[in-house]
Design brief:
The protein has 321 residues and is mostly helical. Helices cover 56% and strands 8% of the residues. It has a three-stranded parallel beta sheet with strand order 1-2-3.
Length: 321
Amino acid sequence: MPTMADKKILVSGVKPTGRPHIGNYFGAMKQFVDLQDSYESRIFVANLHALTTLQDKGEMERNSKEVILDFLGIGIDPERTTLYYQSDVPHVTELAWIFSCLTTMPELMRAHAFKDAEAKNKDLNVGTFNYPLLMAADILAPDADVVPVGKDQIQHVEITREVARDFNNIFGETFKEPQELVIKTVETVPGTDGQKMSKSYNNYIGLFDEDSEIKKKVMSIVTDSGSDTPENVYAIHNLIKSAEELKDLYAERKGKYKDLKDALAKDLIAFITPFRERRAEWEAKPDEVDQIISEGGKKMREIVHEKMMDVRNKVGLIHHE
């Protein structure tokens, strides 16, 4: 196992926009757990990013704490992974401003996220437009080597590399050019209605749902009566059991949708219960959770402070301690 000094730095953030479902887990969260031994991981709650759409004090505070509890519940170890709030490292907003003075508007207008948002809503706030630069600051300030992303998010890292390159060309070598770590995600986790699992479609199975909720949602999964194997049921089942493990079950109960749903519900409950129980244990220790967040923020401020002293010096911003 590599030592801390040998490990590359991994940085990623998750917006506090509500409770996760199993699609979120298999799409990203699981990888944070799997990678924490291989990298020096720095995972943050992207509450500043969330301000572009979430503008309610109470909801922001609750959601931010919930994300930390979710991380701890799925098995992220605060001894191996630094967990922190983005807003606890205010240096990133200063760095994002510096980047905004070096980046042209046409460059930002090419961002997929901006074009998608513009197509849906003409009254965009400036934060949505500048989103890639705050993201670049989040990644570059703590010296990230890798950023875990899905295929649809590679452009974010490409923009970050361009920002680093522009700064380095103007002011001298300062930032690493991070690489995307393309995680092997499930292309589409189907929801109970057969569409992609999404909170906006209300077709999701929550990652920390109670047993009764899991059973109810599994039984509501839409099935195709023309097939011996209910595809949506099998696709979800195959996330937690291998094809080899499911082979006999689906052969023996061919066409018996209720039996297969019962089996899926049982296996999902067995899969989710340890997450739910571990999360509840952490939730019962609020002071300890607060300490984890506080210590994570302190560590990251110290790390980023050194980088920002170098940046300020190079761009000519005089700073007095």
